[in-house]
Design a protein that fits this description.
Blueprint: H1 2-9, H2 13-27, H3 40-52, H4 62-84, H5 96-99, H6 103-127, H7 134-150, H8 170-173, H9 176-193, H10 197-200, H11 204-224, E1 229-241, H12 255-267, E2 279-281, H13 295-304, E3 310-319, E4 329-337, E5 343-348, H14 362-367, E6 389-390, E7 396-401, E8 420-425, H15 434-450, E9 454-458, E10 464-466, E11 472-475, E12 482-492, H16 500-526
Parallel strand pairs: 1-2, 2-3, 7-8, 8-9
Antiparallel strand pairs: 1-12, 3-4, 4-5, 6-7, 9-10, 10-11
Helix pairs in contact: 1-3, 2-3, 2-4, 3-9, 4-6, 6-7, 7-9, 7-16, 9-15, 9-16
C-alpha cells in the first residue's frame, strides 16, 4: 500500500489528471442502479494521495498554493459527473432536429461546471491539510460543505451527492433521519477516505476504530429504530403508469388518444382482492392540453370518477389569456379533481429546471436562437407557495413535482402538516438509462428523512409506494405499463432529533472544527 500511495503522490501533469478522472469515474458505480459502494473505498484514498502530492515549489500566494489541489478535485469531479450524468443528453435526442446541437453542453459542459464544486472541496480541504487522520477530517469537511453549496448555488443541482453512495438500502438510510443528506455526505467521505491511512500507518488504529463505530452505529440504528406509528387510517391508492412515448406527449394529433389512455386506466377495475381506489395519481404533465382550452376534459373526468374518488393529476395550468404572450402565465402543476369534475386544489412547481422549463436571461438567449426543451407556448413560471393537497379521510399530501424531490429543503418547511409525500415526474426524457433509477433513489430518501410515506407516479417509471422507513411497499419497473393498486396505511416516523437539514450542517461544522483543530495543533508542535 505504501508503494502504491507513493506512486500516486509523485504523479504529475497529465498522468495526475488522468488518475483523478479515473478515480471519480469509478466512484460513479456507487450510485444507483449499480450500488457498488465499495468502489469509493478505492476512489477516495486515491484522491487523498493525489492531494498529498498537490504542492507547489517555492513561495506562492494562497490561490497559487491551492491551484494543484483544485485541479485534482476538478478532474475527480469531472470524471464523476461525466460518467454519472451522461444520460442527461438523452433528453435532447427526443427532438434531435432542434436540440442535438446542445449535446456537448449537456454531456460535457454540465459535468465540467459541477466539477468546480469538487475542486472547491479539495481546495478547502487543502487549507487544513495535515499528516495522518487530520486530512481525512479536512476532506470530509470540504466535501460536506461543497455538496451543500451545490444544492443552493444557481438554484442548485445536488444530483448524485456522495452521501447516497453510503445508503444503497433502506437499512443504511435510517441515519439520514438525524444527519440529513448534508451530514451523510461528510460522514460518507470520512469513511470512504479512511483506508488512505494504511499507506503511512499513522493513526491507523484510531481511524479503524472511528470507522468501525460509525458503521456499527449506522447498521444498529437501522435495525433498532422504532417502526412507523400508524394513525389508524388507510387509503386505497391507484398509481397510473402508462409509459407514453416522450416524442408523443406534446403532439397535438394524438392528445385525445393519450387522454383516453389515462381515462381507461383510471376506470379499470381494481386488481383482484384490492379495494376500489379513493385516490388516483397521474404522473407529471399527464393531461396533454390546457383545461382552459378543453373544458370537456373536466366533464369527462367527472363522469369517469366514482363517488368519493379524487384524482391527483400532473397538468399545465394557465393564468391569463392563454395564447396571449403578454398576459398568459403557465405553471407545471398538480391539480386535485373531485368526482364532479371540479378542480378543488392545485399546487404549482416552485423549483423549475433551468433550460428545461425556463430560459435564464430569456430575452438575450432567445435572440441567440436558444429555446427551452419542454415545448409549451411560454416558459413556465415559478409557483409562489407549496400548497398541501386535501385527500379523502382528512389526509393531506405534500406535492413535489419532478426533480423537486432531490432537494431536502423543499420538503422540510411544509412537511409538518402532511400525511404523505407526493412526487409526480416524467423521466421518459431519459430512456432506459441510470437517470430514472438515480431519481427514484433520491425521492426514496426524502421519505426516510421526514418520516412520511411516499407516493410516486412516473410516466414510464419508476412508480412506487415507499414507506416512511424507505422500504418499497410496491412498485413498477422502468417502462412497465399498468395500474399500481395498493392499500396504504397512513403512518409517520418523524425525525428523532429536530431538522435533518440543520443537523447535517452541524455535522459538517463538526468536521471543520476537527480539521482546523488538528491542523493548528500540528503547526504548534512544529513551531
Amino acid at each position: 500500500m505504501e508503494r502504491l500511495a507513493g506512486k500516486v503522490i509523485l504523479l504529475w501533469g497529465w498522468r495526475r489528471a488522468l488518475v483523478a478522472f479515473a478515480a471519480g469515474a469509478l466512484a460513479t458505480l456507487a450510485q444507483a442502479p449499480f450500488d457498488f459502494f465499495a468502489v469509493c473505498l478505492v476512489s477516495f484514498p486515491v484522491l487523498v494521495w493525489l492531494i498529498d502530492g498537490a504542492v507547489v515549489e517555492g513561495r506562492a500566494r494562497l490561490l497559487g498554493r491551492l491551484k494543484p489541489a483544485f485541479s485534482v478535485g476538478w478532474w475527480f469531479g469531472f470524471g464523476y459527473f461525466l460518467t454519472g450524468l451522461w444520460w442527461v443528453g438523452n433528453a435532447l435526442l427526443v427532438e434531435a432536429e432542434s436540440f442535438a446541437w446542445a449535446l456537448p453542453l449537456a454531456i460535457v459542459v454540465l459535468p465540467a461546471g459541477l466539477a468546480i464544486f469538487y475542486g472547491l472541496a479539495t481546495s478547502l480541504a487543502r487549507l487544513f491539510w495535515s499528516n495522518g487522520i487530520g486530512r481525512i477530517f479536512a476532506l470530509a469537511f470540504g466535501f460536506g460543505f461543497a455538496e451543500w453549496l451545490r444544492a443552493v448555488v444557481l438554484t442548485g443541482f445536488p444530483w448524485n451527492a456522495i452521501g447516497y453512495a453510503a445508503m444503497p438500502t433502506p437499512l443504511l438510510m435510517q441515519p439520514a433521519s438525524i444527519a440529513g443528506l448534508y451530514g451523510m455526505n461528510a460522514l460518507a467521505v470520512f469513511v470512504f477516505a479512511m483506508p488512505a491511512l494504511l499507506a503511512s500507518r499513522r493513526h491507523v488504529r484510531i481511524g479503524a476504530l472511528l470507522v468501525s463505530v460509525l458503521v456499527a452505529a449506522d447498521v444498529a440504528f437501522g435495525m433498532l429504530r422504532p417502526a412507523p406509528v400508524a394513525d389508524g387510517r388507510t387509503m386505497a391508492v391507484r398509481i397510473v403508469q402508462p409509459s407514453i412515448d416522450q416524442s408523443e406527449k406534446w403532439d397535438t394529433s394524438v392528445r385525445d388518444r393519450i387522454f383516453k389512455t389515462y381515462l381507461d386506466m383510471t376506470v379499470a377495475p381494481p386488481a383482484e382482492g384490492k379495494r376500489r381506489p379513493t385516490v388516483i395519481v397521474w404522473p407529471e404533465t399527464a393531461v396533454p392540453f390546457l383545461f382552459t382550452d378543453r373544458p370537456d376534459a373536466l366533464a369527462a373526468l367527472g363522469a369517469a370518477l366514482e363517488d368519493g374518488q379524487v384524482l391527483l393529476a400532473g397538468a399545465v395550468r394557465s393564468e391569463g389569456r392563454a395564447g396571449e404572450s403578454d398576459d398568459a402565465r403557465y405553471y407545471n402543476s398538480i391539480v386535485a379533481i373531485n368526482d364532479r369534475g371540479e378542480i378543488v386544489g392545485a399546487s404549482d412547481k416552485m423549483h423549475l429546471v433551468p433550460f428545461g422549463e425556463y430560459l435564464p436571461f430569456e430575452k438575450l438567449l432567445t435572440r441567440l436562437g436558444m429555446k427551452k426543451i419542454v415545448s409549451t407556448p411560454l416558459s413556465f413560471s415559478e409557483g409562489t407557495e407549496r400548497r398541501l393537497l386535501d385527500l379523502p379521510g382528512g389526509a393531506r399530501a405534500l406535492p413535489l413535482i419532478c426533480y423537486e424531490a432531490i432537494f431536502p429543503g423543499e420538503v422540510g418547511p411544509s412537511v409538518a402538516g402532511a400525511d404523505v409525500i407526493l412526487n409526480v415526474t416524467n423521466d421518459a426524457w431519459y430512456g432506459d438509462t441510470p437517470g430514472p433509477y438515480q431519481h427514484f433513489r433520491q425521492a426514496q430518501l426524502r421519505a426516510v428523512e421526514y418520516g412520511r410515506p411516499l407516493l410516486r407516479a412516473a410516466n414510464n417509471g419508476i412508480s412506487a409506494v415507499v414507506g416512511p422507513d424507505g422500504r418499497i411497499v410496491d412498485g413498477f419497473a422502468l417502462n412497465g405499463i399498468g395500474n399500481l393498486d395498493i392499500e396504504l396505511t397512513l403512518s409517520k416516523r418523524p425525525p428523532p432529533l429536530g431538522s435533518p437539514d440543520i443537523n447535517g450542517l452541524l455535522i459538517v461544522g463538526f468536521f471543520a472544527i476537527c480539521a482546523c483543530g488538528i491542523y493548528l495543533f500540528g503547526r504548534t508542535r512544529m513551531n
